[in-house]
Specification:
With about 100 residues, this protein is an alpha+beta fold. The chain has helices at about 15-25, 60-65, 70-80, and strands spanning about 1-10, 35-45, 50-55, 85-90, 90-95, 100. The strands form two sheets. Strands 2-3-1-4 form a four-stranded antiparallel sheet. Strands 5-6 form a two-stranded antiparallel ribbon. Strand 2 (about 35-45) and strand 3 form a beta hairpin.
């Protein structure tokens, strides 16, 4: 599995409620996206940085999302260019399902 962290500076700080509404407007774009296991939308405590944490089956599947078109969309939607960082994710502890998930 691969975890990707995407971060972008917002042009001005926003409230949690504004972030929630904005994030909900894009959430359907990620529903049932091939290879995407889970996506978290994040807002820094000062409201100045947005982020997303994505859990993928593989890097190859994640690469289908992080295109030039996607980067342009994020930049236009949020006002800041995204940085994208990849991490290997060999183990996930899921306390909702009471599972330990591995990538083997």
């Amino acid at each position: 599995m691969i975890t990707v962290i995407v971060q972008f500076k917002l042009p001005k700080p926003i409230t949690r409620e504004v972030a929630r509404q904005t994030f909900l407007s894009t959430a359907p774009n990620y529903k049932d996206f091939p290879g995407l296991i889970r996506k978290y939308y994040l807002l820094s405590s000062d409201g100045g940085t947005g982020a997303g944490v994505y859990l993928w089956n593989s890097k190859e599947e994640s690469d289908r999302l992080y295109t030039g078109e996607w980067r342009s969309f994020v930049t236009q939607k949020y006002g800041g260019e995204p940085s994208v960082t990849y991490f290997e994710c060999p183990v996930v502890v899921d306390n909702l399902t009471h599972e330990i998930i591995t990538d083997d």
